[in-house]
Amino acid sequence: MTKIVFFRLFIVAAGLLVHVFPAPRAWANSPASPVTLAVLEFSLNLDIANPDDAVHDRLPVRLVSQNLRRLASESEHYALADGRGVGTDLPCSNLDCALHRGRALGVQRVMWGQVTKVSALIWFVSAQLVDVPMATILHAETLQFRGNVRDVMPRLAAILWRRVHEGG
């Protein structure tokens, strides 16, 4: 008789669990809330090239930062943080700076990087995606490009975004 009672209790408990916890497929199909992200202004490194070109060379920094912000704002996975007044328009050159800005913004992730001019036609763009609460780099990527900055930078930012997003 006790076996029958335990069996009935088991059936009732299993029925309650099905109603309380949805099936795993329901969890997979439900949209997750987007991760908050700040895209900081990229820094400019002219150590290798002619430092006298600094005014003209700010263009690729602005282009990569603007394009990455646009891509982040279009993403379903990220909610782009409004960084006005917190210094997202100022470049960071190290992880501590990026973490400090991310904490000030209250975001979960920060993307920051550097544009390096090697010569008149050769550039490197490095980006890092950082998990702010864990203070860890989730993904880092460096790309080299040659050519006209205005033509190449939007495509380069899209490649960089895809690689960093897939890695992080």
Structure description:
This protein has 168 residues and is of the alpha/beta class. The chain has a single domain, classed as Rossmann fold (3-Layer(aba) Sandwich). The chain contains five helices and six strands; from the N terminus they run ααββαβαβββα. Strand 5 and strand 6 form a beta hairpin. Helix 3 packs across helix 5. The radius of gyration is 23 Å and the shape is globular. About 9% of the residues have low confidence.
CATH architecture annotation: 3-Layer(aba) Sandwich
CATH homologous superfamily designation: TolB, N-terminal domain
Strand content: 15-25%
Give the SSE string: HHEEHEHEEEH
CATH topology tier name: Rossmann fold
Gist of the model:
The protein is of the alpha/beta class and 168 residues long. The chain has helices spanning 2-20, 24-29, 54-74, 95-105, 149-167, and strands at residues 35-39, 43-45, 78-80, 109-117, 122-131, 136-146.
Distinctive features:
6 strands; 45% helix; alpha/beta; Rossmann fold; globular; 168 residues; six-stranded mixed β-sheet
Blueprint of the fold:
Elements: H1 2-20, H2 24-29, E1 35-39, E2 43-45, H3 54-74, E3 78-80, H4 95-105, E4 109-117, E5 122-131, E6 136-146, H5 149-167
Parallel strand pairs: 1-3, 1-4, 2-4
Antiparallel strand pairs: 4-5, 5-6
Helix pairs in contact: 3-5
